[in-house]
Design a protein that fits this description.
Order of helices and strands: HH
Number of domains: 1
Number of helices: 2
Largest sheet: none
Shape: elongated
Number of strands: 0
Length: 59
Amino acid sequence: RTFYQEREQSQKLNLDRKQEIIEGIKELIGMDENINSIYRKFKNLQESWHKTGPVPRPQ
């Protein structure tokens, strides 16, 4: 039972992290920086997204 509780907690943390990444991507939309700088930031966010583990499935 502890395994499932730990997995659920981990998935909730991953969900929070992915929501933070989404907010970071939204912030890129209105930036007045060089397109290359914005692209690098986007790629870093994308890499973080892929490294983040699974999230809870919808009920």
